[in-house]
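Quick one, tokens below:
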């Protein structure tokens, strides 16, 4: 990344235990993933205090550490007791702000083009699709894991190397102004806006604020920088037009610049046509992700990929766990793990894709609360019940206070779908074990902190008798 002499100049403070023979390799806030040469950033978080792990950081090869100057005496005392070699302790008023400063300054000296990806749903998958397409021709870095916020983006920027030509940067937000803050340090040269909907409404306050926050990315694009969006979102297109910008559109209609058609989910893969250029496919059963693939193709084309350079079969796309991932359990039950997160848009997409799946057994939905939906959370959960009623699901099992509204709506509609609400995941698991049979397909969905995956884990080793 750069030398400690340069880091000292940028932060206007000289390191304690200075060793200028060492350099900053990249930034780290977690000793579990720290690599030798990293600058460890210690600050007090919600769960733990990084200052408690300074010794571990140096044992693992940290070249230095950013620490809160108010923690100096306690940190130094703890380090002396451990007797680990220490060097380049940089004392600052705000380690997190100092980390952001270093990352922003480092970004300025690199010619890499950063492509920002934001939206309410599908950010990670779209990022992975674009990363897959670009890396066939270019040197590319992409956001790893969940490093898409005020902490993760500086860390990802610090991992850039002069050889990188592109960086696909996922940008998440739960409050107004957060995308602006990320774009300020990332300096994007292009942007993709995935579907926007009611997510994190407790932090945003309104859907209008969600739109405005995601559009903060657009304010940092220069004239001529590519901006790719869905053609079906008329409000988004109107807001973009008000900013004096023109977007590249992707969708199912004839007016889309990149038109998706004939989407199929079969044989463990999703395939689709785009602009009459032939059929493309990627692994999985999530047919709704064809639009995300189209967003990635549109951006890749804008960045220089010719049609003939785009693979027809995308065999090694890096899908994250918990995102409509299908697994056949040894006991003959098919499970669809879409438990990474949930909001009204992503839940609706999952139900549409679930309906398209064929199988010999029952279709069962196991779900829990959609969180952070603000004052209208009951309405969103009632509407979810209405969607479940027409989704072809045979049985819906739910837990969580908010999910009760979904089950009640489902019961009122008398759709023929069995519906039960339970106190917690343990009760759901017990009920599921009673009704589950080989050949059944089970979709798991819920907000991340509801831990719906615990129910999935509980059925993995169920064995069925020969009479079942």
């Amino acid at each position: 990344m750069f030398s400690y002499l340069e880091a000292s100049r940028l932060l206007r403070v000289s390191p304690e235990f200075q060793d200028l023979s060492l350099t900053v390799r990249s930034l780290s806030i977690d000793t579990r993933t720290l690599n030798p040469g990293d600058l460890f950033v210690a600050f007090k978080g919600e769960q733990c205090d990084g200052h408690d792990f300074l010794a571990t950081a140096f044992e693992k090869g940290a070249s230095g550490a950013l620490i809160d100057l108010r923690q100096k005496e306690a940190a130094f005392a703890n380090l002396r007791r451990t007797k680990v070699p220490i060097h380049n302790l940089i004392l600052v008023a705000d380690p997190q702000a100092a980390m952001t400063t270093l990352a922003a300054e480092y970004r300025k000296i690199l010619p890499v083009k950063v492509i920002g990806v934001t939206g309410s749903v599908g950010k990670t998958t779209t990022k992975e699709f674009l990363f897959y397409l670009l890396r066939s021709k270019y040197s590319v870095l992409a956001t790893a894991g969940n490093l898409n916020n005020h902490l993760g983006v500086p860390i990802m920027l610090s991992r850039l190397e002069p050889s990188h030509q592109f960086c696909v940067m996922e940008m998440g937000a739960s409050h107004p102004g957060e995308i602006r803050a990320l774009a300020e340090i990332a300096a994007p040269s292009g942007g993709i806006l995935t579907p926007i909907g009611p997510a994190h409404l407790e932090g945003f306050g309104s859907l209008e604020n969600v739109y405005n926050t995601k559009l903060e990315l657009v304010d940092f694009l220069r004239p001529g920088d590519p901006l790719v969006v869905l053609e079906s979102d008329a409000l988004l297109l109107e807001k973009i037009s008000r900013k004096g910008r023109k977007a590249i559109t992707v969708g199912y209609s004839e007016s889309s610049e990149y038109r998706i058609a004939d989407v199929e989910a079969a044989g463990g893969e999703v395939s689709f046509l785009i602009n009459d250029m032939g059929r493309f496919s990627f692994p999985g059963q999530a047919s709704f992700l064809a639009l995300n693939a189209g967003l990635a193709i549109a951006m890749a084309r804008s960045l220089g990929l010719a049609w003939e350079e785009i693979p027809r079969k995308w065999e090694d796309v890096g899908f994250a766990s918990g995102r409509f991932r299908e697994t056949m359990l040894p006991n003959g039950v098919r499970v669809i793990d879409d438990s990474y997160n949930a909001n009204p848009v992503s839940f609706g997409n999952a139900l549409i894709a679930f309906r398209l799946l064929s199988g010999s057994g029952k279709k069962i939905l196991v779900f829990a609360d959609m969180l952070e939906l603000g004052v209208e959370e009951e309405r969103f959960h009632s509407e979810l019940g209405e969607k479940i009623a027409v989704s072809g699901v045979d049985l819906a099992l739910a837990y969580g206070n908010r999910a009760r509204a979904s089950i009640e709506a489902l019961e009122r509609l008398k759709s023929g779908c069995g519906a039960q609400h339970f106190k917690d995941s343990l009760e759901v698991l017990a009920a599921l074990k009673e009704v589950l049979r080989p050949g059944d397909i089970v979709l798991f969905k819920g907000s991340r902190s509801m831990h719906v995956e615990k129910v999935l884990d509980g059925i993995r080793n169920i064995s069925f008798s020969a009479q079942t």
